[in-house]
């Protein structure tokens, strides 16, 4: 018997202190690197995007990969990549923690569009407000002191 899963995650994390350092011109290089990390873990990338202070990754997790180890590998790998390649001036590191939200496959197309349109979306809404809305939507209890 084989293992069959459909685990669709939207993973969200920010730069330390929400520093607005992820400049638009170098984001494609960062996203390509993240795609490679996901591919090496046999995870399917549906969409990846972000703005100056955070990124969204919409991915299907392979059953052999734990969410926490994947996020850890992405954050450590990209931090080194950013610093070695001087990709973003002022980047120190990623925030501690992350948000990860599961969705039904029926929501996939809507989520792809949502992540695709991050730049437009954030002309109207701050990352903090967006993140709180996601936490509330998924009925996740949180402490505001961690939402600097």
From TrEMBL:
<dbReference type="InterPro" id="IPR002686">
    <property type="entry name" value="Transposase_17"/>
</dbReference>
<dbReference type="GO" id="GO:0004803">
    <property type="term" value="F:transposase activity"/>
</dbReference>
<protein>
    <submittedName>
        <fullName>IS200/IS605 family transposase</fullName>
    </submittedName>
</protein>
<dbReference type="Pfam" id="PF01797">
    <property type="entry name" value="Y1_Tnp"/>
</dbReference>
<feature type="domain" description="Transposase IS200-like">
    <location>
        <begin position="4"/>
        <end position="118"/>
    </location>
</feature>
<dbReference type="GO" id="GO:0003677">
    <property type="term" value="F:DNA binding"/>
</dbReference>
<dbReference type="GO" id="GO:0006313">
    <property type="term" value="P:DNA transposition"/>
</dbReference>
<dbReference type="InterPro" id="IPR036515">
    <property type="entry name" value="Transposase_17_sf"/>
</dbReference>
